[in-house]
Automatic annotation (TrEMBL):
EC number: 1.11.1.27
Keyword Translocase annotated: no
Family: Belongs to the peroxiredoxin family. Prx5 subfamily.
Keyword tags: Antioxidant, Oxidoreductase, Peroxidase, Redox-active center
Gene Ontology biological-process entries: cell redox homeostasis; cellular response to oxidative stress; hydrogen peroxide catabolic process
Superkingdom of origin organism: Bacteria
Name the record gives this protein: Glutathione-dependent peroxiredoxin
GO cellular component, one term: cytoplasm
Active site: C56
Length: 168
């Protein structure tokens, strides 16, 4: 079943490559419980089929990086990018795109959370395995308040400008 507006996101674990060790976060991949991450926060979340892929690298992620301050001015606490890749790949992609401090690059390496959301995409026939559908959403204390799901390979409703305009 696909998650919808009004649903609470399922709990799960996402990993993030931490560039600088700090209190409670060691250098390298760190695992985080979604239920803890969303507590009391308004999150702009977007998911992509894969790091370093053409549309994701040229348009999707750069749009959220570019509009980060405007999204935060509309009440967004954090911006997340989620992909079915490992934390090393997501960390490298974030470094290449200069996402540090703007967009948290979360890995769902085995698509466990993506499947629990009902947003997995079977790309086995293209040699890519199971990935995430492309979408954007707003989570308010873990509840989906906005959801923009792309159809097929489209990139028409999950971009940063659309999400920004929906925030009013």
């Amino acid at each position: 079943m696909t998650i919808k507006i009004g649903d609470k996101v399922p709990d799960g674990t996402l990993t993030e490559f931490i560039e600088t060790a700090s209190e409670g976060c060691s250098l390298g991949p760190n695992a985080f419980k979604v239920s803890e991450l969303v507590k009391g926060k308004k999150i702009a979340l977007f998911a992509v089929p894969g790091a370093f892929t053409p549309t994701c690298s040229a348009q999707h992620l750069p749009g959220y990086i570019e509009l980060e301050s405007q999204l935060k001015a509309k009440g967004i606490d954090e911006i997340w990018c989620v992909a079915v890749n490992d934390a090393f790949v997501m960390g490298a992609w974030g470094r290449e795109q200069n996402a540090q401090g703007k967009v948290r690059m979360f890995a769902d390496g085995s698509a466990t959370w993506t499947k629990a959301m009902g947003l997995d995409l079977d790309l086995v026939d293209k040699g890519l395995g199971v990935r995430s559908r492309r979408y954007s959403a707003v989570l308010d204390d873990g509840v989906v308040t906005l959801l923009n799901l792309e159809e097929g390979g489209g990139y028409e409703v999950s971009d940063a400008n659309t999400l920004l305009s929906q925030l009013g």
